[in-house]
Specification:
Blueprint: E1 2-4, E2 7-9, H1 12-20, H2 26-54, H3 59-66, H4 70-77, H5 84-93, E3 100-102, E4 108-110
Antiparallel strand pairs: 1-2, 3-4
Helix pairs in contact: 3-4
């Protein structure tokens, strides 16, 4: 914490410590995991959007290909409601014929 006049300025790490606890505590670990999951979901959503736009498809057209409404495609592109079965349907509808999940030291797993 740094005092600037009558104001207290905290670093982002100090603010996280105050609100979620120190690194290694269950609450902080849960928070960090949720943030990481949200970032990964966001990147998947961006990949869906990029592939859709490269094919000049609207959200509605992609939705028709997999049997969902435009709003569901919008949620997917924003990183919400992403599951492996849904990802599989979307990417296959976009012509992505294979995909694998890198599990680090365990190896890679083919998703479809």
């Amino acid at each position: 914490m740094k005092q600037v006049g009558k104001f207290k300025l905290y670093s982002s790490e100090e603010a996280l410590d105050m609100h979620f606890g120190k690194v290694g505590t269950p609450r902080r670990d849960d928070f960090e995991r949720e943030v990481a999951e949200a970032v990964h979901a966001y990147h998947i959503g961006e990949a869906i959007k990029k592939a859709r736009l490269q094919q000049h498809l609207t959200q509605e057209e992609l939705g028709e290909r997999i049997g969902v409404r435009r709003a569901q495609i919008s949620r997917l592109e924003k990183g919400h409601s992403i599951t492996i079965p849904t990802m599989s349907r979307v990417f296959q509808a976009l012509g992505v014929t294979t995909a694998s999940l890198d599990l680090g030291a365990i190896g890679k797993v083919a998703l479809w």
